[in-house]
Amino acid sequence: MDPTFVNSLITVVALATACAFLSVPVVLRRWAFIGEGISHAGFGGAGTVWLLAVMVPSVDQPQMVYMGVVVCCLLTAVGIGILSRRERINADAAIGIFLVATLAWGFVARQIYVEHTHHEPAWFESLLFGQMKNLSREYAIASAMISAAVVFTVVMLMKEIIAYCFDPVTAQASGARAGLIHYTLMILLALTIVIGVRVAGSVLVTALLVLPGVIGTLLSRRWNIVTAIAVASSIIGAMGGVLINLAYRVVPVGPAIVLVLIVEFLIAYVVTRAMTRRPPSSLADGEAPKSQITSSNEISSSKSQRSKVAPR
Amino acid sequence: MALVDISHLDFAYPSQRTLTLRHIDLKIEAGSVLGLIGPNGSGKTTLIKLLLGLLSPSNGSIHIDGCDPPTAVRRGNIIGYLPQNPPLPENFPISVRQLVRLGLVGKTGLFKSLAKEDVAFADSLLSRIGIEDLAESPVGDLSGGQLQRALIARALAPRPRLLLLDEPTTGLDSAGQKMFIDFMQQLRRELGLTVVFVSHDLRAVSAMSDRIACLNASLHYHDTPDHLPADLVYRMFACDLEAMGIKGAISECTCDMPHVPAEPTQNKQPV
């Protein structure tokens, strides 16, 4: 088998698995925009290296640019974490601030680099749309190890992550280390995005952090099953994208992965709609659905009443 | 013996020049129910946040079971908390049983599995609060009242010594409030809890509490519900006790009194 194909397969499966485990908290915490913020921060890091390369030509190497991307993504994740947790800025606004700041810095740096060298800097197009060519064995192994670390951390902190996603304030009030979980999730997202930017590009890596979690929550209401569905759909999407790229070289891997995930989402959506429209068999027999069962001493309050009184 | 000891407490939010809470001295006996009342913006929820260690005092000290609030919270089995506006988890993918077990997360600690006896106790709460038949239902299927019970069970799961209830009767009709109060009285007797019950619903507070603390930035009263001065309530809430269903010193009410901010008075009987 072609070693490049094997390296690509290992990398995308590792990426898909890590993204799927994180996509459930991302969807439930409504952090869908966070992937965009952290991944675009890569432009800030790359831009800094491009400017350094204008002054010190020996810095002008793809590895150095990638290091800049990694460092900037990690710093941005921590910055978003601090702003959204400690300051009076909500997560969406914090992400938006970092996104535009790093993008602007990156594009200014690119323009200066092009003016001086008269060619595009290393990694410019790859950062936007990903690049699967020439993936080394070392990169594939590093991706697998980072993915394993992400999955291990999420599994070990599962009960804290669930409590944090349900309600951060109550989790903290009950003694859970909500701050630690918040920053750990940010760092794990940054690490995963660093792999994802190489494969799918900064524009499309968000799809891998959102669609698997959405598909899982559409099809199940059990955390473990949601996670399992997210992992399965993510791996199918990733492998599907690689195989499409193998069959039709004109189709880039990143967009192919996203399109397969979109098809999976549409199928899940249609299936869910069909299931919710069908009347439950128990209702046909005149039995109340389980959700309507109340205990004999039920406190008389309806969800609609509660929503009116205490809107969230 | 006092489970909670608040001494010379002042608190101001960084963005505000005035003190939100000033000169608070309050002791809460173990096993008692304290009703904390006051008008909107009087500092009730701020005091709860200070007890939970979510805010730090500007001056003074708080001790819960001999610890400062952050230490008490980190131990995971001293404080149980029912928030004022709990989330409405329509699509959150956990069962009611899992939700109740989330209360054990702080007590158990990082990287550890839940202890079997803690899990058994948390599961037993489901039947004790009357939602055992909903244990495997998704939390999104619960009605408001059922969800409130599940959240109380979650707060009780680590067997806390102190239960903080922040506006628990908000959104409940009068029948629901009565059921909630009966239910909490029963739980309190069974589990020997110390309860702080925050509300501006005087009827609910007076029915449930051994003592009432009347808060409006500073502490204006701390005694049994029967001795609550009517004019103090009138000044604070601009209405009379009888209309609120509170029995006590109604004859003392000076009903033509204009609604003015209440002045601090000496605590009648610090506990």
Could you describe the 3D structure shown?
The complex is a heterodimer of chains A (312) and B (271). With 312 residues, chain A is an all-alpha fold. Chain A has a domain at 3-201: ABC transporter involved in vitamin B12 uptake, BtuC (Orthogonal Bundle). Chain A contains 13 helices and no strands. Chain A has helices at residues 3-28, 34-55, 62-86, 91-117, 124-129, 137-156, 158-166, 168-173, 178-219, 223-247, 253-277, 281-284, 303-309. Chain A is globular and about 65 Å long. Mean pLDDT of chain A is 85; it is low at 282-312. With 271 residues, chain B is of the alpha/beta class. The model of chain B is unreliable at 247-271 (pLDDT under 50). Chain B folds into two domains: 1-78 and 174-271, Rossmann fold (3-Layer(aba) Sandwich), CATH 3.40.50.300; 90-159, no CATH class. The longest helix of chain B is centred in the C-terminal third of the chain and has 18 residues, at 174-191. In chain B, the strands form two sheets. Chain B has a six-stranded mixed beta sheet, sandwiched between helices. In chain B, strands 2-1-4 form a three-stranded antiparallel beta sheet, with helices on one face. Chain B contains nine helices and nine strands. Chain B is globular.
